[in-house]
Amino acid sequence: QVQLVESGGGLVQAGGSLRLSCDASGRTFSDLAMGWFRQAPGKERAFVATISANSYAAYAPSVKGRFTISRDNAKNTHYLQMNALKPEDAAVYYCAAGVYSVRAQDYDYWGQGTQVTVSS
Hints:
globular
């Protein structure tokens, strides 16, 4: 059974940092892109970052320079380091695995999400 489990969410003050982790199991993910999306209340799920099997990374313009995505294929885990957090970064963050893309529909596997809250 394929499973993605996020961790690391929580409450942080504006300007602070969090690191999200996504632990994958049930198959080898080294051949898939791993991504992060987020969804704020009343908004659609939005692309945040993705990293290809060869570790090419892409970011949404709103997070570029503040967030860093990385992966550890030996652990079947990928990460999202979030620095200089802003209140507008608050959302449920989802990890995903699939094709290297900014579109949610290109990802086949999804986690349940982890809440990130940023206080001003």
